[in-house]
Design a protein that fits this description.
Layout: H1 6-17, H2 23-39, H3 45-52, H4 65-68, H5 77-89
Helix pairs in contact: 1-2, 2-3
The structure holds zinc ion (ZN).
Protein name: ATP-dependent DNA helicase RecQ
Domain RQC: 70-97
GO molecular function: helicase activity
Amino acid sequence: MMLYDPADMGWLRRMVDEKPEGPQKQVESHKLNAMSAFAEAQTCRRQVLLNYFGEYREQPCGNCDICLDPPKHFDATQEAQKALSCVYRVNQSFGISTW
Ligand SMILES: [Zn+2]
């Protein structure tokens, strides 16, 4: 079982970003990116996990949550344009946390 909250990723990203430059920061950043990719995967999680360990599987497993209930996709072009138009109209004066 995996519990995932995108807000936690932002918090963890800031923690890694605040560390001094060096190999430790690179390793932690890589691990964070890999975990984020796994959590937000739109394809078979087993394939993502195997790729992390350098293995490749052509066929989806058919048993993970993504295989059993694939994410629904839709064209959000118009919604994105409206959101960006809103940002432009308020002169970019509000942050993402503004409701
Ligand atoms: Zn799968």
